[in-house]
Design a protein that fits this description.
- Keywords: Membrane, Transmembrane, Transmembrane helix.
- It is a multi-pass membrane protein.
- It is found in: Membrane.
- The protein is mostly helical.
- It has one domain.
- The protein contains 13 helices and no strands.
- Helix 1 packs parallel to helix 12 and helix 5 packs antiparallel against helix 12.
- The radius of gyration is 18 Å and the shape is globular.
- The mean pLDDT is 82.
């Protein structure tokens, strides 16, 4: 449990740098996510083959169905999230995307039959309040509606991805991520060919951030993310998941010079406090049960 939590937190911090890296890539956002998916899928598929792992996806058609749907939801999340980064900035885009965990927690009793305790609702409320405070200053200054819509759409797809992933019972780890990224590639190739075409032109300065985004922030990071997710409760995933927008805001402030006011710092405190308190409560209840 503890190892899974640390892997999950590390993946969230790396994910928080996605928008910062994308800011250094001078191609349309749709092409950025397509390149990210292709490089991530190829790198992880190569690792999977080199490790001589046994392919099991075709033995579990029900899991494969949920896995493909989860990959399609991931593709939708990427498309809208990176478009939100482009339209309203990294910090606010990340904040809106993390309305998704709230949707997950609200739906988990129905979809996953997980018990929703008052303590978890309280910590989730604190985290959501932190998100509102962090995005409040930017929202007051005025944001364009398409950007806001993209951020909220990303949140919906995020929730769908997490819920579908929790329904997968027999496909695990690297194999799971490879199938999802291949699905993302197929969806994005079809979508890009219709909307913008598949011709991608970029300069030499784009090469390093594109490879970085594809291998580290996608291939390696999604393996950490999904392999840890299987042993964590959906409430822990949702509440600790708010560390990703916090990392995005801190990194965007340091590297992209996006400002962060007193209310946003208060929001950061609520996010971290909610995550730490939730984990402390879980450990305390576990010790009592023993």
């Amino acid at each position: 449990m503890e190892q899974a939590l640390w892997k999950y937190l590390l993946s969230l911090f790396i994910f928080g740098s996605n928008g910062i890296i994308a800011a250094y890539i001078h191609v349309p956002s749709l092409h950025i996510v397509l390149l990210r998916a292709l490089i991530g899928a190829i790198s992880l598929a190569a690792v999977f083959l080199c490790m001589k792992n046994r392919v099991t996806v075709f033995h579990h058609p029900r899991d494969l169905f949920y896995l493909v749907l989860s990959g399609a939801a991931m593709a939708g999340n990427w498309v809208f999230l990176f478009e939100a980064y482009d339209l309203i900035g990294v910090s606010v885009g990340a904040v809106l995307n993390y309305c998704g965990p709230a949707i997950v927690v609200l739906l988990s009793p129905v979809v996953l039959h997980e018990r929703l305790t008052k303590a978890k609702v309280g910590t989730l409320t604190a985290a959501m309040a932190g998100v509102v405070l962090i995005g409040g200053q930017a929202a007051v200054s005025g944001l364009n509606l398409p950007g806001l819509a993209c951020g909220l759409a990303a949140a919906l797809f995020f929730a769908g991805m997490v819920l579908l992933n929790k329904l997968i019972r027999h496909i695990h780890g690297l194999e799971c991520v490879v199938v999802q990224l291949v699905t993302v590639c197929i969806v994005l190739i079809g979508y890009a060919s219709i909307k913008q075409g598949l011709h991608i032109s970029f300069s030499e300065s784009d090469v390093v951030p594109v490879i970085w985004l594809g291998i580290l922030n996608t291939g390696i990071c999604y393996y950490l993310y999904f392999s840890s997710m299987r042993t964590l409760s959906v409430q822990t995933i949702s509440i600790c998941g708010y560390l990703e927008p916090l990392a995005a805001i801190l990194l965007s402030g340091l590297l992209l010079h996006e400002t962060m006011g007193a209310l946003q710092w208060l929001g950061a405190f609520l996010i971290i406090g909610g995550a730490v308190w939730c984990e402390w409560r879980n450990r305390r209840q576990l010790s009592y049960s023993l």
